[in-house]
Amino acid sequence: MVNKNIGAERRQYPRIEQRLPVKIVANGYDFATATQNISCVGAYCHLTRYIPPFTRVMVTLDLPIISDNAKIDCIVECKGVIVRTEDKEDGFNIAIFFNEITESQRNKIAQYVSQFLPHSSSRF
Prior knowledge:
Blueprint: E1 16-17, E2 21-26, E3 29-39, E4 42-47, E5 56-67, E6 70-88, E7 91-100, H1 103-114
Antiparallel strand pairs: 1-3, 2-3, 2-5, 3-4, 4-7, 5-6, 6-7
């Protein structure tokens, strides 16, 4: 029997490789960086300072959404928690899980992500 799902996305919410401006506030420090990838439930980005896993953070994303052939800049603010910190030569990669986000804010991210997905793959 052949498994047709080999290599298929197993996440409930698709993730896209996209650089977006993001502001992260953690332990009294403000960081301005960019996402490496993003989904409705989290983001992955690079920082020059170490933030340990399980640290709570405030996240502000600037999402350029195309609607009716016009670009709208949407701001998404939510709370998250660092679920993984990876030591890199030039800093640290962190994975943030959005643990406190309103449905309307999650929908803005979903709308942004869906712009980059084939229409048949959209699950929102």
